[in-house]
Write a structure and sequence with these properties.
With 273 residues, the chain is of the alpha/beta class. It is built from 11 helices and 10 strands. Helix 1 packs parallel to helix 4. The longest helix is centred in the N-terminal third of the chain and has 18 residues.
């Protein structure tokens, strides 16, 4: 097995940080070393320095995407951190149902991974509006750095175990069974989510309109403090006044460093104008 030196780790970590904002902590060196072994062997490289050079010189972007998939984690499931979905159902959707005359509800799932989060939101919205759903535009923008997980999300096929936390009846209402172990999100719900690759470290966010609420959960755990608050400022600027930001329960926002108002744990709100 090829072993990564601290210098090689530092070089690779700096490259990932500069391009994606992802902060690889020095204590993760062995984890990263092990995750990249198969790639190193497949490419028949003799050191991690060679691998770094290979990634930086690859113009196709494939090497970069593979690296990103190796150093980040995409574990998720439907209805994860259910408090958020309960808050959306009981507070956010009723608020906007009464407020939005044009029936245009704009939602962004940032760092959507393999699609469980935005599909959960789409199902929640479908249930909430019921027969009135046809009168509303509630398509969800779902973005992620990784094309690999976005491809999984577009397919919409999951193991049954990933649906175990869903409310009663949702599995039968919003999925079709493929075999004993797999189910597929029904087409009507798939059409409610638009998947796009997007790097949250981009200086310019190409969104024509502001969002009413944003989910960005368990993404900022990869960022250092300056990067995190730069991203939080972007979310603030791209929310409508009164809009909501949901972050992971393992993440925190220092209220002295942002204009967001604290609502409940892991939920913040942009003040009304």
């Amino acid at each position: 097995m090829i072993t990564m030196t601290h210098k090689e780790f530092s070089q690779l970590a700096s490259f990932v940080k500069d391009n994606f904002g992802v902060h690889l902590k020095p204590e993760k060196i062995m984890l990263i070393n092990n995750r990249l072994q198969e790639t190193i062997n497949t490419l028949q490289l003799t050191s991690f320095s060679e691998y770094s050079d290979y990634v930086m010189k690859d113009k196709s972007g494939n090497a970069l995407r593979i690296l990103l998939d190796k150093v980040t984690t995409h574990h998720t499931f439907f209805y994860r951190e259910s408090d958020h979905f309960a808050f959306v159902k009981n507070h956010v959707l009723p608020y906007y149902k009464n407020k939005l005359i044009q029936h245009d509800l704009r939602i962004w799932s940032a760092g959507c991974s393999s699609g469980e989060e935005p599909y959960t939101l789409a199902m929640l919205i479908d249930e909430f509006f019921g027969a009135e759903k046809a009168q509303w535009n509630t398509q969800i923008l779902a973005t992620d750095l990784s094309q690999v997980v976005l491809d999984v999300a577009v397919r919409g096929i999951y193991k049954v175990e990933a649906t175990s936390k869903l409310p009663p009846g949702w599995l039968y209402q919003y999925f079709r069974r493929i075999d004993h172990e797999h189910v597929e999100v029904i087409e009507r719900i798939k059409k409610e989510v638009i998947y796009r690759p997007f790097n949250l470290m981009e200086e310019y966010y190409p969104f024509k309109q502001k969002f009413h609420f944003i989910f960005c959960r368990n993404v900022m755990i990869y960022f250092d403090e300056p990067t995190k608050y730069s991203l939080i400022k972007q979310f603030y600027d791209h929310l409508e006044p009164g809009g909501f930001l949901m972050i992971g329960h393992a993440e925190t926002i220092d209220r002295m460093k942002t204009d967001f108002q604290y609502v409940v744990p892991a939920i913040y709100r942009k003040p009304l104008a």
